[in-house]
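Hey team,

Filing this mostly as a record. A colleague (T.K.) asked me to run one chain through the structure pipeline before their review meeting, and I want the input and output archived in the tracker in case anyone asks later how it was produced. No errors, nothing strange. Just documentation.

Input sequence:
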Amino acid sequence: MSHASAALTPKARLSLAKLIVDEGWSVAAAAKMYMVSWPTANRWSDRYRVHGKDGMIDKPSRPRTSPNRTPQAVVKKIVALRWRKRLGPVQIAHRLGLAASTVHAVLVRCRINRLRHIDRVTREPIRRYEHSHPGAMIHVDVTKFGNIPDGGGHRLVGRVQGRKNRSATPDKPRNAHRNPKMGTAFVHTVIDDHSRIAYAEIHDDEKSVTAIGVLERAAAWFADRGVTVERVLSDNGSAYRSHAWRDKCAELGITPKRTRPYRPQTNGKIERFHRTLNDGWAYARFYANETARREALSGWVHEYNHHRPHTAIGNQPPISRLTNLAGQYS
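Output structure:
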């Protein structure tokens, strides 16, 4: 394939060949005219005589035959063992009597050389996608965290001290064993498919009225940043299957979509965001109480959106994909 610095493009090759074949120029004179070597000019004129204009394009560099190439039947066996058994190149090579380097080359060629490229459930290559512009699709979901007792939770202070802190936390209902019920923090999360910009709110439930309120405020939040939400993808939770959710989406001009049942991979971007949220905010440091953790959420989300490099978008912060946005790097 010709490149930007090529001496002859297909159009120039045709002109050179016509000078020699049609107008009778000598090969040396035409080569000097186009500042190429004599063999180069001669090669294109010969191709023009045989193939005409169609001969001016580059031919593939692949050889006509590859006698040492791994047979297709063997390739299928290698792929089958990789998908079904999740074996490495050495194990597959031992079973099939091949060199490990040969197996590895086949796996690379089939793009399944890394196990993370294969779905653990279906054993098929993972299909990744990304919508073309911000707002084309947002993902919504809810993740849950146990509330932190006054004095800190057991993850950071240990189980013994954590139980003491729970018992000492006032104004909490008790279960049958007289242990306080700390309750659950329901974090409603929204993430844009293209930019990975995130929005999050903490509530005490995951009812439809709460989810609808989050969607309404999230849509307004995105609109303030020049993003119009077109579709929303959710799981099959009761809040997202309700008629109220459907009606609110229609009112906002958003098309609701749901994932396949028992397939959280379909909503994988927000599932991965939950893991980041877990490591970066929920259990990243010591919180003396639940109030302190909840107050830290907005600051962490700002850090995630504006400053934290995101590997899926070229190690840039998500806000970088919203162009011409005032103060986007603040």
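Quick notes for T.K.: The CA atoms of residues 195 and 313 lie 8 Å apart. The chain has a mean pLDDT of 85.
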